[in-house]
Design a protein that fits this description.
The protein has helices spanning 38-47, 65-68, 71-77, 91-99, 156-166, 186-198, 212-222, and strands spanning 2-7, 23-26, 30-32, 57-59, 82-85, 103-106, 112-114, 117-119, 123-127, 130-134, 137-141, 144-149, 172-178, 201-207, 234-236. The protein is α/β, with parallel strands linked by helices and 237 residues long. A hairpin with a 2-residue loop joins strand 11 (137-141) and strand 12 (144-149). Bound molecules: zinc ion (2 copies). One zinc ion binds next to helix 2.
Length: 237
Amino acid sequence: MNVTVLFNNERVSDRYHTGWGFSCLLDRHVLFDTGEKWEYLEGNMKKKRVDLSRIDVVFISHDHWDHTGGLWTLLDKRPNLRVIGCQGFSDEFKSKVLEHGGRFEPAEDWSSVADDMVSTGELPCQYKGSYLAEHSLIVRTDKGITIVAGCCHPGVVTIVEKVRERFLTEPVHLLFGGFHLMERPGREIELIARQLKYLGVKNVAPTHCTGGEAQAILAEAYGTSYATAKTGESFEI
Ligand SMILES: [Zn+2]
Ligand SMILES: [Zn+2]
């Protein structure tokens, strides 16, 4: 299955827009998050020859501007799109989806997103003193499970543990997205790298809010099983 990285803070060449946020396209029709703004997302999609008319689902990991920025103009252009989020997203977000002509669908635990793709369901956490709901996308292919995470605010290990409990016999081929380890001390990141390996995560492709130090520690821990996920890259899972 094809994965195309559409937006984050790293890029394969300066032909692409970068900034704060995350977005990728799965199987050429499921858009995961939308980055910080539409102009950047649209520009990068054009360079990757993404066919906008094929996108039929938008999976929003959590209701933060750097993941929802491109959503509103996309909905204006493509009304009636399914927007899969969590019940715990803000009322403001849900009504804005409707105002822009989208159809908001709260994900349940392991509810279907598309063929071979399910949501982890809502994982609760606290962010800057208030409640935050986030879910991750699980893709199942012949290689095993790929976990696509927006920011991992509930904790990268917590997310992987929930997935492992549900899919005990399927290997975790890849963990990809923002791991949110920017402000963590190095020793803690080393422990997290060990926990991810213990949980059976075979390959990692950390980006966005993972942080440079955490990327370096994970690259060291994972060796050839570490992959970059820069804007403009495409790979198969
Ligand atoms: Zn983020
Ligand atoms: Zn966030």
